[in-house]
Amino acid sequence: PAQRIPNVTTNKVDITIQFMTMSAQRSQLVNFSRPYYVEGVALLSLPTAENKTFDKLLAGGSATRVSILQNVDAEAQVHSVLPECQVMQIDTQANVLQALESKRVDAAAVDLSTVRWLASRNPDRYFDAGKSWLSMLYGAALRQGDLDWLTFVNATFTIAMFGHENALYDAAFKDYFGQEPPARHPGFPAI
After folding, report:
1. What's the predicted TM-score (pTM) here?
2. 173 in a structural domain
3. pLDDT in tens, 88-114
4. In Å, how far are 38, 70, 83, 155, 187 from 76, measured between CA atoms?
5. Are 130 and 67 found together in one domain?
6. Does residue 128 share a domain with residue 47?
7. Do residues 100 and 49 both lie within one domain?
């Protein structure tokens, strides 16, 4: 992940589409395509746990334990939805999940896409607790100064998400997240 922007700015790659959260700071270094996914933080729990849903985790109050990747805003992020819970900040995403699997915590706060992927691929091991928050936009990073390339990428995403050539996007959405993409209706654009 640390090489995403340098790879674009040094011409090693033409585009980076790797969990790239758009930000004003990053947009000073690269151009971003239109957003292709709205990411968020979500709660992953175990399907066999008594307190596997968000409502039960919230009702657990200070007895509820949640793991999250260590960062400056981690505790505040979790407390914004589970104000009384115990927050365990952990050094790697793999260890955040390991804390859940070993039952040291009741839930793991991870990316919504990770929750959807794990719960759809491994329903016997993981459960989507039903809560997501803190929307973040994912976009592709491209070299600054190439308006033709940016326009092509934006048109490709727009047609795939909202237009008449969406079979590949829809199949990927269903495959990775186990969900049907939202229905598209002719008429006024919903872009």
Report:
1. 0.80
2. yes
3. 999 999 999 999 999 999 999 999 999
4. 21, 12, 9, 37, 41
5. yes
6. yes
7. yes
